[in-house]
Structure formats: C-alpha cells, structure tokens
Amino acid sequence: MPHYPTSRRARPINPHKLPLSKWTAVVAVNKEKHFLVTRVVPPASPDLPIEAVELEAVISGRSMVLPWRDLQDATRWHQGWV
Question: Cβ–Cβ contacts within 10 Å for residue 60, how many?
C-alpha cells in the first residue's frame, strides 16, 4: 500500500487548467471519492475572477459545484485518483 503524507505542500493551482483534472476526496462525499472537474463556472462578469468549478463523481455522474480554491486544501482533496 503506498504511503501518502498527511501534510502535502500546497501547490498553486491555475483555475484555467482545472477542466478534466482528477481529484480524490480525502473523506468520501455521498460514498464517492473520485471526481473529475467537468467545467469551470464562469463568473457573472468577464472582469471578475473565476470562483467555482463543477465536479462530477466518476461512478454515479452526480455533479456538485464548489469554490475551486477548496481543492488546494490537502485535508479535503488530493490531486489525481489515489
């Protein structure tokens, strides 16, 4: 079994590069752990920064929207499918 450090160094994430990226929830969400970013939610105005992304569960296809910066929290999300 691979060892994953509990305190991962936060890597800067560019919201424009998030589409189709893979994520693993540290704690299962609705019994699902593996997600794919299906889209970046456009801001209300083109002058505003991107705030949210849509994640889709790999198994069920259920979608949820969350602030993209939440993906930087290593206690909640790991990049890739672990």
Answer: 10
**Residues with Cβ < 8 Å from 60, sequence gap 6 or more?**
30, 32
Neighbours of 40 (CB within 10 A): 17
Each residue of 18-75: pLDDT tens digit?
999 999 999 998 999 999 999 999 999 999 999 999 999 999 999 999 999 999 999 9
Q: Which residues pair with 63 in a beta bridge?
A: 56
**Running DSSP on this structure, what letter comes out for residue 7?**
S
Tokens representing 48 are 């505003």
Question: How many residues in total does the chain contain?
Answer: 82
β-bridge mates for residue 77, sequence order: 25
pTM of the complete model beyond 0.90: no
